[in-house]
Amino acid sequence: MKEKYYFDVFPELTSERLLLREIRLSEANHMIEITVYDGHQAENSRDVIRILSQIALDYLNGDGITWGLYLKSTGEFIGNCCFCRGYQHNIAEIGYVLKPDFRGYGYMTEAVKTVTRFGLQDMKVTQVCAYTELENHASQSVLLKAGYVKTTHDEDTYKFISP
């Protein structure tokens, strides 16, 4: 049972409209509004760099991987999609965030499908799961459109599993 994932080269993924690649520290000032780590929201570029450094450490330790989402047409950074919190029992937990101006266009569904496929086919995880707050209907819609199935919930969250 794999609990860590290492890559010799950061895997770049593509979809119809997106390039998913490693985020560069030089891009920190373009992502302040959507950068969060363990519940802590970035307030400035310095916070983003600190969070990106933690994300890079998670990657180097084999405990997660975060792709920046970039429009193929312009190269603009629009969000991120990741596997986070390690891979207990060979299950990857997916997380994602999109800049507000790019919501509602199907970009995140496209990214979730791409990252899920990579996890299942290339990383050989046995399952990808996601958790949403009960009121986060937009995220639930993304997961359902990406083929996930709602399985359980507790008093605060719903759980979704990959197809």
Polypeptide structure, described:
The protein has 163 residues and is an alpha+beta fold. Helices cover 25% and strands 31% of the residues. The chain has helices spanning 45-60, 107-122, 137-145; strands at residues 13-14, 18-21, 36-37, 40-41, 65-71, 77-84, 91-98, 127-133, 149-153, 157-161. The strands form 2 sheets. An 8-stranded mixed beta sheet has the order 1-2-5-6-7-8-10-9, with helices on both faces. Strand 6 (77-84) and strand 7 form a beta hairpin. The chain is globular. Pfam families: Acetyltransf_3. It comes from Exiguobacterium undae. This is GCN5 family acetyltransferase.
Topology:
Blueprint lengths: L12 E2 L3 E4 L14 E2 L2 E2 L3 H16 L4 E7 L5 E8 L6 E8 L8 H16 L4 E7 L3 H9 L3 E5 L3 E5 L2
The SS-based structural class is alpha+beta
Number of helices: 3
Q: What is the straight-line distance between the termini?
A: 20 Å
Average pLDDT metric: 93
Instruction: Give me the strand/helix succession.
Output: EEEEHEEEHEHEE
- Cross-sheet strand order for the largest sheet: 1-2-5-6-7-8-10-9
Poorly predicted sequence stretches spanning 5 or more consecutive residues: none
For this entry, give a set of tags.
alpha+beta; 8-stranded mixed beta sheet; 31% strand; globular; GCN5 family acetyltransferase; N-acetyltransferase; Acyl_CoA_acyltransferase
